[in-house]
């Protein structure tokens, strides 16, 4: 169960799903299909954004700690 909560595993999973969704979107024929995949891509991208912001905050926090 610990492996599921590992941020690196979560990010890798999100990136894999994002790649699959982009590939599927590029093969979609109808506008409805493309819209559906674009929503999936958007949501996965927003999820990754959360991780990147957290990492950025930790890096910034680490820089602040080094000043002391």
How does this model look, in words?
The chain has 68 residues and is mainly alpha-helical. It is 84% helix and 0% strand. The protein contains 2 helices and no strands. The longest helix is centred in the last third of the chain and has 36 residues, at 31-66. It is elongated and about 45 Å long.
Record keyword descriptors for this entry.
68 residues, 0% strand, single chain, mainly alpha, 2 helices
Short recap of the structure:
Helix content is 84%, strand content 0%. The chain has helices spanning 7-27, 31-66.
Shape, principal axes of CA atoms: elongated
Structural class: mainly alpha
Proportion of beta-strand residues? under 5%
Look at the structure and give the mean pLDDT.
Answer: 85
Major sheet description: none
Low-confidence stretches: none
- Report Rg: 16 Å
Fraction of residues in helix: over 70%
Annotation, overall tally of beta strands: 0
Distance between the termini: 37 Å
Q: Provide a count of the helices.
A: 2
| Series of secondary-structure elements, N-terminal to C-terminal | HH
């Amino acid at each position: 169960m610990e492996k599921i909560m590992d941020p690196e595993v979560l990010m890798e999973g999100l990136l894999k799903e994002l790649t699959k969704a982009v590939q599927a979107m590029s093969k979609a024929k109808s506008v409805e299909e493309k819209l559906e995949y674009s929503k999936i891509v958007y949501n996965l991208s927003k999820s990754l954004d959360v991780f990147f912001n957290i990492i950025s905050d930790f890096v910034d926090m680490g820089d602040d700690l080094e000043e002391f």
